[in-house]
Amino acid sequence: FSGTLYSSYLVNIGSFSSDFGGLTTLLVNDYATTDSNRRFYAEADGRTATNAPGVRYISTDEAVGSTALTTGATYLVLSKFTNVGVSLSGVDPGVATLWTLTLDQFADFVAAGRLETWLDTSGNVQNRATISQTSGTYDFDSSDYVRMACYAKSGSAFEQATFDEIRYGTELTDVTPVV
């Protein structure tokens, strides 16, 4: 596959890691049992002290939103990754974008026609984050594995979340079904 990849999932975070470095994410990996070529992170809790959602094209750099999700509430986490499966450069970067929406925000999004311009309008979503990757080639195909993960920064802390309705597609409407 080459082009733009969208993903979405519902998440309800039961508890954040007490060490302010936990991570709740959906990502793609080359192997089922070992970490290899991790990419396309859509994080309900980014690995920062604020517990705000984040996004990564690959595992090294992260952009985070401004507001942590509320525990016990359900959110839609949407992400977009451009230039998947092609050689990235400064001229043709891969851009990762993440949006988080409450149920009411999702209803407004659907009523507005499920448009990306609506997601990018200030104040419409709870969080928006974006980051670029300017080197490498990162694929998404039938040999990849999708990982749902909750990590703690240290062994004494824990993070708990419930994932539901995980979707991948090539159009925003593929991953945002009408309620």
Structure notes:
The chain contains two helices and ten strands. It is mainly beta and 179 residues long. The protein has a five-stranded antiparallel β-sheet. It is globular.
Observed structural traits:
179 residues, mainly beta, five-stranded antiparallel sheet, 2 helices, 10 strands, 7% helix, 43% strand, globular
- Sheet bearing the most strands, described? 5 strands, antiparallel
Oligomer: single chain
Shape: globular
Query: In sequence order, what are the helices and strands, one letter per element?
Result: EEEEEEEHHEEE
Tell me the strand percentage band. 35-45%
Alpha plus pi helix count: 2
Helix percent band = under 10%
**Which parts are unreliable, with pLDDT below 50 for 5 consecutive residues or more?**
none
Sum this structure up briefly.
By secondary structure, the protein is mostly beta strands. The protein has helices at residues 103-111, 116-119, and strands at 3-15, 23-29, 39-45, 54-58, 63-64, 74-84, 94-101, 127-133, 145-151, 160-169.
Helix/strand layout:
Blueprint lengths: L2 E13 L7 E7 L9 E7 L8 E5 L4 E2 L9 E11 L9 E8 L1 H9 L4 H4 L7 E7 L11 E7 L8 E10 L10
Antiparallel strand pairs: 1-6, 1-10, 2-3, 2-9, 3-4, 4-5, 6-7, 7-8
